[in-house]
């Protein structure tokens, strides 16, 4: 993959990748960079950037202890570092270089934000319409055994995470596991480990579900259909631990629940609109070369018009409604239906955390640290070893942040190595409970049934699955190397 010489020296790799995608380069004009950035690795600005980044990450990881939302130190840290860089460059009369670097990183974050914003808005709308409650109750009422539910939860998490965020898929299936396993804490704990592994594996071969995969797709490095070459490696990553954990799941069958949940008016149509949105996103990227955010925003427009329809067709409190339609309360509640409430209820803490993380990583790249790290990872050792090590690191650091860091290093990799990096970063987060959003979410949701220590017991087995998936990738995707 070729890169512009100026972008290589200036650290504007994310911008170069976006400009390489037809239809993106003309989206907006950024200030021209007339000189290469200064190497500040051994300067006070560089040391300050590293110190603030480390401190911000430490505070983010201690969120449960300090009760300080993880986005707050990241956003403030990003502001402090970039202001320090901008002031230093301005004093030298070279402010344009710092501005261009900041805006290039902001552009990369903006596309990610719009994509996730639409996806999470649809999920919130479906949850409010009772879609996820209906799925949970349906599973509870089928009379499945614990072992059957273990596999159903895992497979559903694997499939659902290909189209929705890993956090949403993990929390959904975690709610099912918690509901059916009230009398069996061991089942809940095992299911949560299985769900974390399955969710991360499922999102690793679909740009619609995984953050790191989405980054690679957004930057035009791989085409949408190429990611599906990772289906077998990802499934192997899920299957290896699940086969062993199966024998530790209780054999009994939980008591059947007779609870019923009625889908609210418009629920099926919202699901259909979400499917249409995903189709528009993929189709517009494959055939028109538009960035994924363009298709997702088109889908948001469709959802906004449908929410307006629900509002305008809502019945008065004492009005009549057709036989066979949902309860009257479903109609009257729609008089207060507002799609902007679904947007307001997004996980803004996570979205702002990604802003801080991407801007801090971008700052370190502009200062010169990522170039030095890239020289070691992709110069002094083999790309395969580098990608495996980076994947192991994702057990501690968010995979989206790591992928953005690698993109900022602009390594020259084959398609097989880019697929390997996507795979290892996606499934590597399963090694520890804190290594991925589903794991962190389930730690809070289950309240003690699933713990960091319990997940750690299965670390060796998950690690075996990690290396098995890599071996399968080299076997089935040898043509890409």
UniProtKB/TrEMBL annotation:
What InterPro entries has UniProt attached to this entry? Cit_transptr-like_dom (IPR004680), NhaD-like (IPR045016)
- Assigned keywords, A-Z: Antiport, Ion transport, Membrane, Sodium, Sodium transport, Transmembrane, Transmembrane helix, Transport
> Any transmembrane segments, and where?
40-62, 74-91, 106-125, 149-177, 224-249, 270-288, 294-311, 352-378, 384-406, 418-438, 458-476
Where does this polypeptide localize? Membrane
Membrane-topology descriptor: Multi-pass membrane protein
Superkingdom of origin: Bacteria
Where do the Citrate transporter-like domain residues begin and end?
A: 59-426
The primary site where this protein sits is: membrane
Q: Which protein family is named in the record?
A: Belongs to the NhaD Na(+)/H(+) (TC 2.A.62) antiporter family.
| Name of the protein in question | Na(+)/H(+) antiporter NhaD
Q: Which gene encodes it?
A: nhaD
């Amino acid at each position: 993959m070729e890169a512009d010489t100026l972008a290589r020296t200036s650290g504007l790799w994310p911008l170069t990748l976006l400009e390489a995608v037809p239809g993106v380069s003309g989206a907006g004009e950024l200030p021209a960079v007339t000189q290469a950035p200064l190497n500040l690795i051994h300067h006070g600005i560089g040391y300050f950037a590293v110190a603030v980044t480390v401190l911000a990450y430490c505070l983010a990881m201690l969120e449960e202890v300090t009760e300080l939302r993880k986005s707050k130190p990241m956003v403030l840290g990003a502001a402090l570092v970039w202001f320090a860089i901008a002031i230093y460059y301005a004093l030298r009369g070279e402010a344009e270089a710092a501005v261009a670097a900041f805006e290039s990183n902001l552009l990369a974050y903006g596309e990610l934000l719009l994509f996730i914003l639409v996806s999470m808005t649809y999920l919130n709308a479906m949850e409010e319409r009772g879609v996820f409650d209906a799925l949970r109750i349906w599973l509870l009422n089928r009379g499945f055994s614990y072992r059957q539910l273990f596999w159903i939860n895992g497979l559903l998490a694997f499939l659902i995470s290909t189209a929705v965020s890993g956090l949403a898929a993990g929390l959904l299936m975690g709610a099912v596991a918690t509901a059916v396993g009230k009398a069996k804490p061991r089942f809940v704990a095992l299911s949560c480990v299985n769900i974390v592994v399955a969710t991360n594996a499922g999102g690793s071969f679909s740009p619609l579900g995984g953050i790191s995969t989405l980054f690679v797709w957004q930057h035009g490095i791989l085409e949408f259909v190429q990611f599906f070459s990772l289906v077998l490696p990802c499934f192997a990553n899920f299957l290896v631990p699940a086969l062993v954990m199966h024998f530790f799941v209780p054999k009994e069958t939980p008591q059947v629940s007779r609870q019923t949940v009625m889908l609210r008016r418009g629920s099926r149509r919202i699901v259909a609109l979400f499917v249409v949105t995903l189709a528009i996103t993929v189709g517009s990227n494959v055939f028109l070369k538009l960035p994924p955010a363009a298709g997702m925003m088109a889908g948001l427009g469709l959802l906004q018009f449908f929410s307006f329809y629900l509002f305008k067709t809502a019945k008065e409190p004492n009005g009549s409604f057709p036989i066979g339609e949902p309860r009257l309360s479903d109609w009257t509640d729609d008089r207060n239906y507002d799609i902007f409430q679904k947007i307001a209820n997004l996980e803004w803490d996570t979205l702002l955390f990604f802003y801080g993380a991407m801007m801090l990583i971008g700052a370190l790249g502009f200062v010169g640290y990522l170039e030095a790290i890239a020289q070691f990872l992709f110069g002094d050792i083999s790309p395969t070893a580098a990608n495996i090590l980076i994947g192991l690191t994702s057990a501690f650091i968010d995979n989206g942040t790591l992928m953005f860091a690698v993109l900022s290093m602009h390594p020259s990799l084959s398609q097989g190595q880019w697929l390997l990096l996507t795979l290892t970063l996606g499934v590597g987060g399963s090694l520890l409970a804190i290594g991925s959003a589903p794991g962190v979410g389930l730690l809070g949701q289950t309240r003690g049934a699933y713990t960091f220590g319990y997940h750690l017991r299965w670390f060796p087995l998950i690690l075996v699955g990690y290396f098995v998936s890599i071996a399968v990738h080299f076997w089935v995707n040898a043509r890409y190397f």
